[in-house]
Amino acid sequence: MPTTTAAETSSIVIRDARGQAEMRAVEELQKEVWGLPDLDVVPLSQLVAATAAGGVLLGAFDRETLVGFVYGFVGYEHGRAAHHSHMLAVKPGFRNHHLGQKLKLAQRERVLAQGINTMTWTFDPLQSPNAYFNFNKLGVISDRYIINFYGEDAASFLHRNGTDRLWVTWRLSSRRVSERIGGIKNAAPEIESVVPLVQIEKDNSPRLNNSTDGLSSEYVLIEIPADINKLERQSSELASAWRVVTRLAFTKALSSGYLVENFHRRSRGGQQISTYYLSRKKSLDDFV
Ligand SMILES: CC(C)(COP(=O)(O)OP(=O)(O)OC[C@H]1O[C@@H](n2cnc3c(N)ncnc32)[C@H](O)[C@@H]1OP(=O)(O)O)[C@@H](O)C(=O)NCCC(=O)NCCS
């Protein structure tokens, strides 16, 4: 697949996607990015209604061509209005040039202008690139793990392994978010002594460490493979094992009062490791 250069993406404009032709292009891009059948595509009529009622649909346009979009609608959380961001996609050949980030930043501005300070969305916690994007580039936090959010069998080719999701919260005007979107990265805490609750073995299989059963330390670490999609192509059993073990670890840690706060990637003996950092004694409101 041909990929674009940074220079070629610099002229791409982020703006509202409006009118029938642009919304049809959003339908088509959903099919391309997620491989969705017609029945599972968010259709034009829904896009029209949601945006008329305060939802936001922004496109990344390379001249007339739609190469990315973000779509969300007004929601309600903890007694207040929130924005629920349902879909974010960038055309494969245009990725890793910050278009995803630019779409989220434009969406943030739009939502703040409506007087809403909280945005939520979900993502598959086994997808390391998405975890990096959400926690490191944007600064989300998560206090909720949802088992098979969209049911056991999702239509998308990206979701062959069930549809478990982390529900993430983006506190739009928090210092944490300002720092992350301003490029201030968070360093991984120096906690070599903490044994991860889930650890990746040399052969890429998951190990659940019972020694940390008590969940008594300040941090809980959950490791995931750097590329679950590649691993799934090699062995669907191994990918399922990762789902089972991480589901157990996240639900246990979150129900014990931890929050998913950070995510880091590093190399261990030549193997790429991605790690979630969960911390305790904080609530979502500590991040406002
Ligand atoms: C998620 C998505 C929208 C990101 O779009 P994008 O334009 O590539 O986003 P950006 O360029 O702003 O950021 C991507 C970041 O991921 C990093 N990245 C790329 N491959 C990675 C990998 N294998 N592991 C971890 N991080 C990775 C990039 O280095 C970049 O970070 P950097 O700017 O610090 O270098 C795009 O990948 C996509 O459409 N994915 C399929 C749909 C999807 O999963 N949507 C849900 C998103 S929560």
Q: Please tally the helical runs, counting DSSP H or I stretches of 4 or more residues.
A: 8
| Strand segment tally | 12
* CATH topology assignment of the largest domain: Aminopeptidase
Strand arrangement across the biggest beta sheet: 1-2-3-4-5-7-6
Q: What is the end-to-end distance?
A: 42 Å
- Rg calc: 19 Å
Heteromolecules bound:
coenzyme A
* The first-level CATH class name of the largest domain: Alpha Beta
Helix content: 25-40%
- Series of secondary-structure elements, N-terminal to C-terminal: HEHHEEEHEHEEHEEEHHEE
Structural class: alpha+beta
How does this structure look, described?
The protein is an alpha+beta fold and 288 residues long. The chain folds into 2 domains: 6-181, Aminopeptidase, CATH 3.40.630; 198-287, no CATH class. It is 31% helix and 30% strand. The chain contains 8 helices and 12 strands. The strands form 3 sheets. Strands 1-2-3-4-5-7-6 form a 7-stranded mixed sheet, sandwiched between helices. It is globular. The site of coenzyme A has 20 residues, from β4, α4 and α5.
SSE layout:
Blueprint: H1 6-9, E1 13-16, H2 19-34, H3 44-52, E2 56-62, E3 65-77, E4 80-90, H4 99-113, E5 118-123, H5 128-138, E6 141-146, E7 165-171, H6 175-181, E8 198-200, E9 206-208, E10 219-225, H7 228-234, H8 236-255, E11 259-268, E12 271-279
Parallel strand pairs: 4-5
Antiparallel strand pairs: 1-2, 2-3, 3-4, 5-7, 6-7, 8-9, 10-12, 11-12
Helix pairs in contact: 7-8
The protein binds coenzyme A (COA).
